[in-house]
Specification:
Distance between the termini: 93 Å
Oligomer: single chain
Strand order of the largest sheet: 1-2
Low-confidence stretches: 191-206
InterPro entries: Ankyrin_rpt-contain_sf (IPR036770)
Protein name: Ankyrin repeat-containing domain
Strand content: under 5%
Largest sheet: 2 strands, antiparallel
Length: about 450
């Protein structure tokens, strides 16, 4: 490159730098995408500054390839050290107007992503994203910054959605032997967070502070109405920032800070709608918390918010909400051994706000594959007396016929009696048998026992 600079005139060298080859790429596009050496990329820009007029230089930096990406987009994705991207931004700020610079930051590629979106997904240092936003705040009006933060990709994702799942990108890259960019693409293609490696991720994530800072920035430059709508925005998969955060940010604290901060500036109706929102799978934030948060504290805190911001009727409906597979929040709690205490507290909340009939229906609800909460508790809950207490709740609110049907319900693993025999102590098993004997006809009762083939028990009786 230095040799070319020495043997050409400034005009010839400038033309050489600007030349576009296959896929409409110039040397900046190629170097930023395929060379890890950010120092050389910045040197190329400095060469351009030396031999081009400001107008020509600006045209060069704005030039995009056939994917509508300019050097800023490519640098944000492929130069993952952060320093290269920030130096590129700093160099550019020196010779263009604030208005033009702001437009450059807002430019979208063919996926609908601007540099901020790409930075949120691909930069290894989360401080890079905040620094980029600060540059934007310096060059744009408050109104324009608000629009920039609200910008959505073609799949509906805004910077908050991407930021919430950003902390897992490097983990996925390491575990799957992929580059960071490939890992980010996997996460986005798979519903921003629906990657099976996430189930094994460390709960110690640092991106939460970045997410909260972005929310603060948004609040500073948006009206309350616009701010509320921004937080409620969904991706094409129906996920809002609460859903993605509940799934990806396993510390729980960030999620609670997010809703605590946001509710100060949202109307009661907005908060209620935000909490009730369901993804395309039919899950609301309670489902996501119960499935992915490491303990029940976060879930119960959200339940408290629900009671505060919803009418009793709406709150009850929120607790009862079922995903597309029939699962409600009780199923997720029942299937996690550490959520036993949380499950009972949640059931008590439901008992207080639901009618007797609705409460019974909530307990009886079955998923497509796993059955009711009785089946899941029998399999996964080991705390003594847990299953018996749930059965007592059912006995109090159901008719004898419904209660018997609840006990007799089958899954692919068998009925609750069989699961109890395999996973619970004998005392719990015998208590269930006694309950069944009280509420079933003799014919149904003996058929129930035969389903789990306890010939010794049948003989004793």
């Amino acid at each position: 490159m230095e040799y070319g600079k020495r043997c050409m005139t400034s005009e010839e060298f400038a033309a050489w730098l600007q030349a576009q080859q296959n896929e409409d790429k110039n040397v900046l596009h190629v170097w930023s995408q395929f060379q890890a050496d950010g120092v050389t990329l910045i040197k190329l820009v400095e060469y351009g500054i030396e031999c081009m007029s400001p107008e020509l230089l600006w045209t060069w930096l704005r030039t995009h390839n056939n994917e509508q990406r300019n050097v800023l987009h490519l640098c944000a994705e492929y130069q993952e050290d952060g320093e290269t991207l920030l130096k590129l931004v700093e160099h550019t700020k020196e010779f263009v107007s604030r208005e033009v610079f702001g437009e450059w930051l807002q430019t979208k590629d063919m996926n609908g992503w601007n540099t901020m979106h790409l930075c949120a997904l691909h930069q290894s240092d989360e401080a890079t994203l905040l620094k980029l936003v600060e540059y934007g705040k310096e060059s744009m009006t408050s109104e324009v910054v608000g629009l920039w933060l609200q910008a959505r990709g073609n799949n509906g994702e805004n910077v908050l959605h991407l930021c919430a799942c950003m902390s897992f990108v490097q983990y996925v890259a390491d575990e799957s032997s992929r580059s960071r960019s490939e890992a980010a693409e996997l996460l986005v293609d798979d519903n921003l967070a629906d990657w099976n490696l996430l189930d094994y991720c460390s709960p110690h994530q640092t991106i939460g502070g970045t997410l909260l800072k972005l929310v603060e920035y948004g609040n500073e430059c948006m009206t309350s109405e616009v701010f509320g709508k921004w937080l409620q925005e969904k991706t094409m998969h129906g996920s809002n920032v609460l859903h993605v955060s509940a799934k990806c940010l396993r510390d729980g604290e960030t999620l609670l800070q997010l809703i605590e901060y946001s509710t100060r500036y949202m109307t009661v109706d907005m908060v209620g709608a935000w909490l009730q929102a369901q993804s395309n799978d039919g899950w609301n934030v309670l489902h996501f918390c119960a499935r992915f948060q490491p303990d029940g504290r976060t879930l119960l805190k959200f339940v408290e918010y629900g009671r505060q911001y919803m009418t009793r009727e709406v709150f009850g409906g929120w607790l009862q909400a079922q995903g597309n597979d029939g699962s409600n929040v009780l199923h997720f709690c029942s299937g996690r051994a550490s959520y036993g205490g949380t499950l009972l507290i949640l059931v008590e909340h439901g008992r207080r706000c639901l009618t007797t009939a609705d409460f019974g229906a909530w307990l009886q609800a079955q998923t497509i594959e796993d059955g009711s909460i009785l089946h899941l508790c029998a399999q996964f809950q080991r705390e003594k007396g847990m299953l018996e207490r749930l059965v007592d709740y059912g006995k109090q609110c159901m008719t004898g016929e419904d209660f018997g049907a609840w006990l007799r319900a089958q899954t692919g693993e068998g009925n609750v009696l069989l699961l109890c025999k395999e996973h619970q102590d004998r005392g719990t098993y015998e208590k269930l048998v006694e309950y069944g004997k009280q509420c079933m006809t003799s014919e149904d009762f003996w058929a129930w026992l035969r389903e789990q083939c306890d010939e010794d028990w049948i003989t004793d009786q």
